[in-house]
Design a protein that fits this description.
By secondary structure, the protein is of the alpha/beta class. It has 7 helices and 10 strands.
Length: about 220
Amino acid sequence: MKRVGLVVAVETGALERKYGLPSGKGKSIFDVSLYKTPEYTLYALHSGAGEIFAAAATQHLIDCFGVDLILNYGVVGGLSPEMSVGRTVVVNSVVHYDYDVSAVDGVDRGQYADMTSRYITLDRSLVIRAQYVDRRLDAVVCASGDKFVADAAEKEWLRSEFRAEICDMEAAGIALTCQRNEKPCLLIKTVSDATKDGAAEYWRNKEDASDLCLGVLDKVVRTL
């Protein structure tokens, strides 16, 4: 049976609405809930918001539970007119936009010195599988950093500078940790706040958006 790790930043309510109460708790310094389906065992870790929490959670699931892959679902900000509220997408690459060593290492903003690009590419086969399971999914670039982006001008800058269509606060930590550990990861995201909206729209749409992307994620994992 597949062992699947799931990093959840804040949208934990969707798990119980989808799977019911957990079958147990993992022995861990983190809050890890176990859910068993006929196809896989899910180790869901509630990390909290932000890149450091997400990276630590990802490494913990790999080291302590021996998971075969890492999943992440969650709500994001839309950066283009096409990314309206409720739009669900699969992430094909991530850029850590607030990581910047360009002044000392001579690389682009968002690029790690040991990488050839500022884009962290995710497992292509999982992206293709997700699009096969749900043909409505577009594969997008996610701009990721330790900030909730509510300002419309800042959203436009992320779109134009990094060719990103969504933004969040966890994807870079997850993607980079998985790359370092040679573990595949799959990120399914649903837009909760569009280009000209911020915190108020996020709070209105967070729960429904979480349910949408977790439903898509579950369909993909069942086919692996």
